[in-house]
Amino acid sequence: MAKGSIGTKYKIHFEPGNIDVDVEQGGNLLDAALLAGVKLNASCGGTGSCGNCKIIIEKGTVESTRTDKVTEAEYQQGIRQACQTRALSDLRVIVPVESQLSKHSIIHKRKQTTTVSRDSAVNVAGRQFHPPFQKRYLELVPPTLQDNTSDLSRLKKRLRQEPGLKQIFIDFESIKGLPQILRQQDWKVTVTTLELPDDPGITPASQIQLVQTEPGDTRERNFALAIDVGTTTVKAQLLDLYRGKVISEYAEYNGQAIFGADVITRIAYCTKPGGSKRIQSAVVNTINNIIQCLSIDSKVKPVEIGYISLAGNTVMVQLLMGIEPKYIRLSPYVPAASSLPTVKAASLGIRVADHAFISTLPAVASYIGGDITAGVVAAGMDKTERLTLYMDIGTNGQIVIGNSDWMASAACSAGPAFEGGEIKHGMIAVEGAIEKCTINPANLEPEINTINNQKPRGICGSGLINIVAGLLETGIIERNGHFHTDIESRRVRHSIDGYEYVLAYAGETQTGKDIVITEIDIANLIRAKAAMYAGLMTLVKSVGFKTGDIQDILIAGAFGSFIDIKQAITIGLLPDLPTSRFRFIGNGSLTGARLAAFSIDFMMQAKKAARMMTNLELSENGDFMNNYMAALFLPHTHIEDFPSVKARLPEGNTRSARRY
Ligand code: FES
Fold first, then answer.
1. For residues 302 and 304, what is the distance between their CA atoms, to the nearest angstrom?
2. 255 CB within 6 A, ligand 1
3. Ligand 1 and 48: CB distance under 6 A
4. pTM
5. 255 touches 239 (CB < 8 A)
């Protein structure tokens, strides 16, 4: 053990990246990585339970708490969990590829623009193009000795002549430079207004606020952002509000991921000293990075972005806004606010125009956030008479059922398996993730597809569903998720984690290690799908329907878009209904945020929809527990509820294992 006196500092050198950082003697290596900006996968938030933060100590002395996440062989190679390891000397640390939170691979640009016409007669997904953030060009009558009212009175008088601007509120900041601005281009100015929509039944009319005055005609430079703040990734679109189009799009990991993969871990992190501030800064930095990327791509300066329309789950929004989140996870699970007032972006440290405000899509409950309201309204669920089910499948599963007359919602914690968490070789859906897999029933050999056709690096959620469905259909595993032990295939073997199936051998992978799916992984996926399905069944029954009554099922979320419906039914994640009833709607949250920036009507509809949704709390619901227990089989304890799967399985997968 290295000696060191109190106050001794050690230098930690991280590779790849050639990054040095100083830590106190005994400093935690996960904290050191955070300090150094090294993006380590720490999905459990540092509790030691996920095993994703493994590093290799190439040089130097450390002290480690040993957990079952590090095998004896790994330990001998110098592999440690960063969160369980403390520095006792200068160190050289290698972060292996499987422990890195890759950043660039999820960033994508969209060159194709989505255009809606400025013509107010043309609709934005059925609504009038009417951005809440607008620029108007005005020519004022200059003052004279006979008419020497103040600059502001003159401006207000002219504004009142504009349609819909009888009453206007003035933001003090917007008039600071008014005398020069009015005179700079001979009393010709562009004024920017922000309209806050009325809340049917709550506020009687929209409020309009003057937020900026500029010399000359600047109407063509009117930009906004639509942002989806997801637990795993943050996605944004840069919008041209003059032409009504998307100019550029970017996505990046939510910087909070280094504090934990799910919302509960992040709320827990906020209880640490300085935790809330660190967690808020992490997502603000992510948003600022995205703004930089959008700006470089589009040649629009960040200071030209005057408005942000934002959707996210309730926890993400509260963390971004710096609002204490702890009561969200304590019974009776109350959020700070369903509908937040607008807030100045600058007050949160978001680097756009000083006058830019953020409007947030309204939430329903602690676990049914503005992301769901945005998606439900964007998908038109509040306008249809058909009985519709909306599902956002992920770590936090969210489900809404109803139509234009009524809606009910429920949320369930499925755990991180759908996003690759708590899966031995799980990863999120980035380059190199196995996203598809077919198992040949004749020889039990897999055929795998990876994202961007890279060498495999791990398994993402959609791949996991494919693999488990394939293992079930070929009879390699039983309906309880256990391997048939007498299968004769080089792919099926017994290891320290029990039985496993080899998807790719070391020589074929990026990591230089075999990629396998273990019996423990399968059990984790079964628990995740059981939670989603039980949530769905409990909600559907609570409103007096059966799954067969559902006319349309809308699958939302980036992960959802890549699910193979048939195989999701095979494992019992989705009900056994004709595939024609399912529809992918993509990222409903981002679409909703964009539509809210293009049309004030959208925000009004979202507020109405949020108020009409009745939320069913599942965490203390007895029916949910019963449904959950029944769903802990593939596809389900009651296979009769899955007739198409029953017909596909080898004799209902009740026969004894085959020999090959
Ligand atoms: S095991 Fe270290 S962060 Fe999860």
1. 5
2. no
3. yes
4. 0.83
5. no
Cβ atoms of 54 and 96 within 8 Å: the answer is yes
Residue with tokens 């529809």: 583
CB-CB contact of 229 with 312 (8 Å): yes
Q: State whether the beta carbon of 260 lies less than 6 angstroms from ligand 1.
A: no
* Window from 23-32, 37-46, 101-110 with minimum mean pLDDT: 101-110
Which residues are bridge partners to 344 per DSSP? 357
- Give the Cβ contact number of residue 196 at 10 Å: 18
Does the Cβ of 44 fall within 6 Å of ligand 1? yes
3-class DSSP assignment, residue 104: helix
Q: Can you tell me the distance from the alpha carbon of 334 to that of 498, in angstroms, rounded to the nearest whole number?
A: 42
For residue 64, report the distance from its CA to the centre of ligand 1, in Å: 13
Residue 2 confidence class, pLDDT cut points 50, 70, 90: very low
Is residue 93 within 8 A of residue 30, CB to CB? The reply is: no
Distance 417 CA to ligand 1 centre (A): 15
Q: Quote the percentage of the chain above a pLDDT of 90.
A: 68
Check pocket membership of 52 for ligand 1, CB cut-off 6 A: yes
By CB neighbour count within 10 A (0-12 exposed, 13-18 middle, 19+ buried), where does 95 fall? Answer: buried
Q: What pLDDT, on the 0 to 100 scale, is given for residue 121?
A: 38
Which ligand 1 atom is nearest residue 42's CA?
Answer: 3
Mutate to test the pocket of ligand 1, among 81, 98, 259, 422 (most ligand atoms within 8 A of CB): 81
Residue 505: other Cβ atoms inside 10 A: 13
- Please indicate whether residue 375, judged by its CB atom, sits closer than 6 Å to ligand 1: no
Whole-angstrom distance, CA of residue 110 vs CA of residue 239: 12
Whole-number pLDDT of residue 125: 67
Separation CA 295–CA 291 (nearest Å): 6
What distance in Å separates the CA atoms of residue 6 and residue 597, rounded to the nearest whole number?
55
Q: How far apart are CA 463 and CA 285, in angstroms?
A: 31
Atom number of ligand 1 nearest to Cα 40: 3
